[in-house]
Amino acid sequence: MSAADKTAAAPGQKSFLGRMLRSRETGIISALAIMVVGLSFFAPDFASPNNMLNDARNFSFVGIVVLGQAMVMITGGIDLSVGSVWGLAAVSSAAFMNLGFGPILGCTLALLISAAIGLFNGLCVTKLRMPPFVPTLATMSIARALALVITRGHSIDGFLPDDSIFFNLGGGQTFGLPNPFIVFVVLSVIAGIALSRTVYGRQLYAIGGNERAARLTGLEVDRLKISVYVISAVTAGIAGIIEVSYLSSAISNQGLGKELSVIAAAVIGGTALTGGEGTILGVFVGAVILEVLRNGLVLLGTDAYWQGVFVGSVIVLAVFIDQLRKGFWRTR
Amino acid sequence: MPVLLTVEEISKGFPGVQALRDVTFHVETGTIHAIMGENGAGKSTLMQVIAGALKPDTGRLIFDGNQLQLSGTRDAASKGISIVFQELMLAPNMSVAENIFLGAEPRVAGVMVDRAAQRSQARAALRRMGIDIDPDIRLGELTIAQQQLIEICKSLVHEPRLLILDEPTSSLSEADSLVLFRVVHDLKASGVTILYISHRMREVFDNCDYVTVLRDGRHVKTTRLSDTDPEEVVRLMVGRDLAGVQRIRPMNDDKPVMLSVRGLSDGKRYHDISFDLRAGEIVGVAGLIGAGRSEMALGIFGAPSAPRGEIVLDGKPVRIRKPGDAMRLGIGLVPEDRKQQGLVLGMSVGSNLSLAALSLGRLSNGNFVKPIAENRMIDGYVDRFRVKTPSTEQLVGLLSGGNQQKVVLAKWLAAKPRVLIVDEPTRGVDVSTKAEIYALMRELARDGLAILVISSDLPEVLTISDRILVMRSGQLAGEIAFDDASEERIMALAALDASDTPHPAPTTYGEAEAAS
Ligand SMILES: Nc1ncnc2c1ncn2[C@@H]1O[C@H](COP(=O)(O)OP(=O)(O)OP(=O)(O)O)[C@@H](O)[C@H]1O
Ligand SMILES: [Mg+2]
């Protein structure tokens, strides 16, 4: 009887504030707010509409890929191949269009290639029981090499007439907002709904939280895991294609090293490397923080060579604060 | 006798839960002192406070005349207080000796682990406890009962004066528990004081000197066991009288066979298992730990499926290759180990509860979860099982052990199976909830659910089962009808000539006592 009373009383308004305070998003959103206010104050250029819109475009590329990475990490995996898949999708889409395939077919083929790499990663992780690190490290190398094979080290440009609508995707604006940002927001909403409102999302968290229990509850663990690697690779492909559209040319080292930014944004956003935890709101903000930090350091006139030090410190700081929130230091 | 430990007005709260309120009592030197109470009464929390794993909000501990200020379990161990936690905390991939000395390794030159010393000291420690286990063996190869003994051995490294055992027998069969109690009595004889948590009334009355009862975080009474009786203890725990659960004569003969298992074998852990399960029938599966009961259940459920044998459901042979197949056919399995197999500890009570139903496509519209239907279902089960939780959003890992067990059971009932296999359904569950679970199982059986109950708790198997299958070293040793059922019959079948088991070590020690 006392138990029933408690359960009836607790989820009401009383706990709402407590839940807000303890929720992980509150922490990083406030961190972002502090950064934005601070930068607007110390670097007035930061708050200019032009700079803001530029930032919005810039974090969208990494941001789109973080959405897929977050899903992989929620299942307890990791995808190191995203930077290379990004590059491969970029050059192959340009190459297909160069062959006269047209933007729609060219981009679709590039995304299919990306998906195939994701499928390969997923199959290695599930059917061959490899730790995710291994196949995605391999495809990181393979996809980058294939990008080089396609370009032979040259850039691909002039693959479409300058006035093609394709270039609008990365370079254009809608309602005054850069198109890549719009794509990022739309994909975030879709991913957010998938993770929080669907059976599929629930199952991803369950797999990351306890794979054995998930299996014994009848979840199709292998199929679900394969799906997230495919999604991750496709988001990397989308980022690559939008970047080609933005740059109007493709080179083999697009996306080089981006896997690190992507994983960093996911971790800053509160995604646990051990699986079972993470939200789309969190990683969205994580991606924004990373770009605002980079941009802010430039505007503040910081030595560019030191940037990595700041980014690294922020990663450690974010995870540290997250552990404080979870009471990690109290219980152990 | 002199007082060893005084617990003085200890309080401890967690977000949303006041686990302990002003708890005060004494523990006398050289006694075995039981702590009893319902699930979530605060027993484990109190023990963790005493052992330095949790800091109390208020109150004092006086140990041997001195006030204790504990900075952690290591500090407590150095002051003579050791604890064996409710959930095993061993490293399955390390050797027995390494586990025993984890964090307290004998050193050479201050840095290197002295392996030879570690091994010989481990062997000596095991021999002192009278256990015959090779210290070099990988821990994961031991049975749960043996692992439990290793936990105790590990806690003895610091030569404690107060040893805390939090539900050490909940995963042991009665025969296996006897070994543990032999060790506990030896320790008592050598002057060690023991705080002992258990939900098994008989065990407590047979072995302990004192009992302290907690209810809703409050101290209710501390008394000599010779001055009380089980009925009174239950009344103190629950706050009211509790009718014992009676056996009920089954009337199943005319009911249709629901599940039929024919010659099921995996070639290692279970062989040639055949039995029928009728709709509305509750069949018990008894046997010693390691007899292959859980493996057989997993084999029926497709996790992994048995390479040989046939499963017939409703008269039709079925192929079950994975748990999803079994679930779609209407078979559910409540697994033995809630932490490893049953729950996603990092997910909420609610999400755990609905996971099985959701993966059967219930409570959802296409792929979209129907939040209102889901919450109604969750609230219904939380009420029905009286799951003690501040909200359904609470992480299930933060519930007390018995309340976690209720969530696993509810999760599987929410999947609405036609055949339900439950493996140790009431492990760590308190008396009153146990009675409710039995009543619920009977109610479900009356509605036609066929239930297979695997249990190491003999009174439980006897009370709940319409008939009992006994397994011994991977085979069905026999079947006991309702009228013939008794603990002696079960033990005779379970332990008879166990000398030919493929894994002699786990069973041999238990069987000697059990057969006598
Ligand atoms: N770390 C924690 N965070 C939040 N609540 C907790 C935590 N640990 C325990 N609780 C709560 O405190 C209460 C007491 O828990 P405790 O584990 O002491 O119960 P118990 O008497 O050992 O029960 P059981 O017989 O089920 O093991 C429970 O309601 C439990 O949910
Ligand atoms: Mg407990």
TrEMBL record, chain A:
This is ABC transporter permease. It comes from the Bacteria. Pfam families: BPD_transp_2. InterPro entries: ABC_transp_permease. It comes from Acidisoma cellulosilyticum. The chain crosses the membrane at residues 27-47, 59-78, 98-120, 181-200, 226-248, 260-293, 305-324. Keywords: Cell membrane, Membrane, Transmembrane, Transmembrane helix. It is found in: Cell membrane. Its main location: membrane. CDD domains: TM_PBP1_transp_AraH_like. One of its GO terms (cellular component) is plasma membrane. Signal peptide: none annotated. It is a multi-pass membrane protein. One of its GO terms (molecular function) is transmembrane transporter activity.
